[in-house]
Amino acid sequence: MLVIRQRIPARPEWDAELHLTYDARSKSRLRCFTASGEDVGLFLERGQSPLHDGECLLADDGRVVRVCARPEQLLHVTCASAFELTRAAYHLGNRHVALQIGDGWLRLLDDYVLKDMLVQLGAQVEAVEAPFQPEHGAYGGGHHHSHAGEAEFSYAPKLHQFGVRK
C-alpha cells in the first residue's frame, strides 16, 4: 500500500495520480487507488481544507502523487441578471450547500430538490458532468498561509483573528 501523510506544493512532474470526487478530497483518512490501480492509504492532518485539483502529495516512499478532481454530476446555474444569481446563491448558502462560483454561474452537486428551488427562483439549471471545486468558506479552518498577490486570494489572512482589537 502506498502511504501518504503529507501535502506539498504543486510540482511540474509527478509519479502517480489520484482521481477523487469532492467528497473523497474532503477526507483526511481514506483508502483509494491511483489511476494505475495501486492501493493508497491517505493519512493527512485533520482539519485542513479539502484537496484541490492539481495539488500534490508526498508518499512515504518519496513519490509525488498529483490530485485530480474527478468529474461529477453537477447543476450549472445561470440567471438573467446579477441580482437573480446573487439571490440564488443566497438561498443555496442558507442551506449550507457546497458551491462553486464562476463568472456569471454557480455549480453544485446534482440534487433534484435544489434544482426545483432554483427553477422556482427563475434560474436556468443545466445538468453537466465536470470536476467540482467549491469555495471552501471563510471559517473552514486549516490552510492558513497567505495567498497575497494571487488574483483569487488578494486579501490579508485576518478572517480567523476573532476578538483581536487594534
How far is the first residue's CA from the last residue's CA? 51 Å
Query: On the 0-100 scale, what is the average pLDDT?
Result: 87
- What is the radius of gyration computed over CA atoms, rounded to a whole number of angstroms? 18 Å
What sequence of helices (H) and strands (E) makes up the elements? EEHEEEEEHEEHE
- Biggest sheet strand order reads 2-6-5-1-4-3
Question: What's a concise summary of this model?
Answer:
The protein contains three helices and ten strands, in the order ββαβββββαββαβ.
Provide structural commentary.
The protein is an alpha+beta fold and 166 residues long. It has three helices and ten strands. It has helices at 22-25, 82-94, 112-120, and strands at 2-8, 16-20, 29-33, 39-43, 56-59, 64-69, 71-78, 100-102, 105-109, 124-131. The protein has a six-stranded mixed beta sheet with strand order 2-6-5-1-4-3. A hairpin with a 2-residue loop joins β8 and β9. The longest helix is centred in the middle third of the chain and has 13 residues, at 82-94. Residues 141-151 and 153-166 have low confidence and may be disordered.
Please give a handful of descriptors for the protein shown:
166 residues; six-stranded mixed sheet; 3 helices; alpha+beta
Lay out the secondary structure:
Blueprint: E1 2-8, E2 16-20, H1 22-25, E3 29-33, E4 39-43, E5 56-59, E6 64-69, E7 71-78, H2 82-94, E8 100-102, E9 105-109, H3 112-120, E10 124-131
